[in-house]
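Ticket 4471: requesting a sanity check on a complex prediction with A1CAB. Repro inputs:
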Amino acid sequence: MSVIAVIGAGVMGETIVAGMLRSGRRPADLMMSERRPERAEELRERYGVEIVTNVEAAKRADTILLVVKPQDMPDVLDEIAPHIAPGQLVISLAAGITTTTLESRLPDKVAAIRVMPNTPALVDEGMAAISRGSHCSEEDLQHAESLLSATGKVMRVPEKQQDAVTAISGSGPAYIFFVVESMIEAGVHLGLPRSTATELVVQTLVGSARLLSESGDHPTELRERVTSPGGTTAAALRELEDHKVRAAFLSALEAARNRSQELAG
Ligand SMILES: NC(=O)C1=CN([C@@H]2O[C@H](COP(=O)(O)OP(=O)(O)OC[C@H]3O[C@@H](n4cnc5c(N)ncnc54)[C@H](O)[C@@H]3O)[C@@H](O)[C@H]2O)C=CC1
Ligand SMILES: O=C(O)[C@@H]1CCC=N1
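Returned structure tokens:
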């Protein structure tokens, strides 16, 4: 079994490590490197995974997952590059960072893959989009897919689509939580106890997501089935249209896509 190192054990690094362990990978096959010592210690205690330095991770692992912020990526790449050689696989989960950037800072012929994951991976309902670099084999891609499929779905996309993917599925959970928060606050405004509003909204979200996913029906059709002529839903949707919520989503996703492009550096 190949050895996997995760460099950067924040929100997403922990999500990936926890998912690999849940899927049956042994702690002995994993290692983590983390700049904040107290965070590293917390995760060592929680998962029993060895904590190493970035250089040790680069020297000892077959597959290196880079899960630091895009702004920290140049320093990490410069630090590990002298200790990496062809045959190892480098997988970046950072927004914006291209495989061209990864390859330009790593030794010649080292295989690199760019991934955009999301936090529902924490409950094995993640969506990860992966793109190959120029030295990457089919076997490398399949290895990355097997690592990521531990925590949800995996889709291959051409790298030119990754900034748009980041805007949709990478950042997407935050938009959904924002809508949930807004609906709960509205329920409280209408006089419902907060706990009642929360349970109503969360189950409505879970139920609607399953209906969408399991029925395969188009969202427009599902929305129309809820919308009785002259009824309550039509009244609410009219307000959403008047407040240009659809246009706001378009602008928001454009902003996220543009930010991902900027993060490329
Ligand atoms: N949080 C999310 O929903 C998603 C995050 N990502 C990507 O994952 C990456 C990490 O994001 P988060 O986990 O949210 O950030 P985070 O800030 O929670 O985690 C980053 C971790 O990297 C560590 N770190 C920084 N420099 C380091 C270095 N030189 N050596 C070792 N460790 C170092 C930090 O101490 C921190 O614990 C980002 O590039 C982000 O674009 C991608 C998709 C979703
Ligand atoms: O906000 C961010 O930059 C990261 C990438 C996608 C989700 N979180």
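Notes from triage: Residues 95, 166, 170-171 surround A1CAB (ligand 2) (CB under 6 Å). Leaving this open until the requester confirms.
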